[in-house]
Amino acid sequence: MKDQSIQYRFQAVQVLVRDAGIYALQWFRNRDTLQIEKKGAQDLVSEADRSVENMIRGRLQTFFPEDGFLGEESGTRNLDAEGIWVVDPIDGTSCFLNGLSSWCVSIAFIVKNEIEIGLIYAPCTDELFASQRGFGAALNGKPMKPSKATSLADGIVGLGYSPKSSIEATQKAFDYLLKSGGVYHDIGSAALMIAYVAAGRYLGVYEYQINSWDCLAGIAMVRETGGWTNDFLANDGLLTGNPVLTASPGTKEAMQKLFAAAGH
């Protein structure tokens, strides 16, 4: 796919991700009326998730009918396409449903297993994290800069957990981090936590098992700001998920040691 075509998509979908976030925010403000279903342990979905994804999917299909689509709620379309949109309409659904602000809309675009575009919009803080491969990453239009820390004791590490994760591996990661003098957050949105690595707010993020729609946009941003991530798309990660590990430039080695301590 030509660079010009990717650039056009990048510009167009920055508008779309904001529109989707504003639409989701209307649901958030009226969340007491939502119908909620349980997909699994600690895995909820509401009509808001489905409505926002349908809006995004419909607009992408209108703008770019030749592109493929992978969404958390509505599944796949045309995965043989040259470019594929990977969408989480509300990353952090539990936060969303419980009135917490740490949720976002996440959209990534991949071409031949390369993440070309990463877009994350957090409506409650009006923050748009955006990256295009080879052109850097920005937060509300200003270039993002990662942390300058060289030790896990110098900042915050995001550690995610869900029932799909290994309790043992997560405990080992906690043990390594705490013994290294670090502290952790889990704000309930992997997408936002990974974006925070690119923005210099976190040193790194680890989760034992995660889906592609939760992390690809953020991974693109970390790479564009000079940070390091594991090869998430290896071994069919797009469809089956993988562990995720991201690190600011100065904490790559320390985060890789945490990854090894967890048993990877």
Radius of gyration: 17 Å
Question: Span between N and C termini?
Answer: 34 Å
Question: What is the number of E strands?
Answer: 15
The H-and-E topology, N to C, reads as HEEHEEEHEEEEEEHEHEHEHEH
How many structural units, i.e. domains? 2
Q: What do we call the CATH topology of the largest domain? A: Fructose-1,6-Bisphosphatase, Chain A, domain 1
CATH class of the largest domain: Alpha Beta
- Sheet-strand content, in percent, reads 25-35%
Shape descriptor: globular
Strand order of the largest sheet: 4-3-5-6-7-8-9-10
Rounded average pLDDT? 94
CATH homologous superfamily title of the largest domain: Fructose-1,6-Bisphosphatase, subunit A, domain 1
Question: What is the architecture of the largest domain at the second tier of CATH?
Answer: 2-Layer Sandwich
| Helix amount | 25-40%
